[in-house]
Specification:
Blueprint: H1 12-15, H2 33-36, E1 49-51, E2 54-57, H3 59-71, H4 74-80, H5 85-98, E3 104-107, E4 115-118, H6 120-139, H7 141-149
Antiparallel strand pairs: 1-2, 3-4
Helix pairs in contact: 3-4, 3-6, 4-5
């Protein structure tokens, strides 16, 4: 049970007897307005393309490509996703090894500190993946609405 939904026994001395609070127990604190309002459940498609035991392409790699495009480096992209640089580098490497042409090109460090950019293949991957998600959601809208109606409010 959430802490705010519990009835808490608080001695008057600790709760603020000087401020005129009655002794005994306090009434439960109502849930914040945001948790009382009806919000539509989040629906996400998690398409993955596997090559053997490897996920050649999936939502995490696409999100990482988008972060590389936005931040211009693997390290900055990793930080923005709360991911280690090593994990991000391994994902990019695994993706590039799975493709006929790489999705990213990295430049060695130097005066400008290096960086990483998406290739036209990388840009196509992001666009196509997001298009598939949007089209799948649109094609399944009726079924998604029916499933959502089965979920407790």
């Amino acid at each position: 049970m959430a802490e705010s939904a519990k009835t808490q026994s608080v001695p008057a001395k600790k709760a603020g007897a000087k401020a005129g609070i009655k002794t005994g127990t306090q009434t439960p604190t109502p849930a914040p307005a945001s948790s009382r309002t009806k919000t539509r459940p989040e629906v996400r498609f998690r398409m993955r393309i596997r090559k053997g035991d490897t996920v050649a392409l999936g939502p995490g790699k696409v999100e990482l490509l988008e972060a590389v495009r936005e931040h211009g480096s693997i390290s900055a992209a990793a930080r923005s996703l709360d991911m280690s640089y090593r994990r991000a580098w391994l994902l990019i490497d695994e993706l590039n090894q799975s493709l006929k042409s790489p999705a990213t090109v990295s430049e060695q460090g130097g005066q400008s500190g290096g960086g990483c950019v998406l290739t036209p293949v990388g840009e196509s991957i992001v666009r196509l993946y997001r298009d598939v998600e949007a089209q799948a959601e649109a094609a399944c809208a009726k079924q998604i609405d029916e499933l959502i109606r089965l979920i407790r409010a």
